[in-house]
Amino acid sequence: MLRFLLTRLSLIIPTFIGVTLLTFAMIRLIPGDPILLMAGERGIDDARYAQLKAELGLDKPIIIQYAHYLNDMAHGNFGKSIITREPVFKEFLELFPATIELSMTAIMIAVLIGLPAGIIAAVRRNSVFDHAVMGFSLTGYSMPIFWWGLLLILLFSVNLGWTPVSGRMAVLYFVEPVTGFVLIDAWLAGDWKAFQSALRHLILPAIVLGTVPLAIIARMTRSSMLEVLNEDYIRTARAKGLAPPRVIGLHALRNALIPVITVIGLAVGGLLGGAILTETIFSWPGVGKWLIEAIRRRDYPVVQGGVLLSATIVMIVNLGVDVLYGLINPRIRKGR
Amino acid sequence: MATVTETAAAARAYEPPKPIVEFWHHFSQNKGAVTGMLVIVSFCLVAIFADVLSPHPPAEQYRDALLRPPFWMDGGSTRFLLGTDDVGRDMLSRLIYGARVSMVVGVVVIALGLVVGVALGLAAGFLPGVVDIAVMRAMDTLLALPALLLAIVVVAILGPGLFNAMLAVSVVVLPGFARLTRAAVLTELSKEYVIASRMTGARLPRLMFLTVLPNCLAPLIVQATLGFSTAILDTAALGFLGLGAQPPTPEWGTMLADALQFIQRAWWVVTFPGLAILVAVLAFNLMGDGLRDALDPKLKR
Question: What are phi and psi of B90, to 5 degrees?
Answer without folding.
Answer: -70, 120
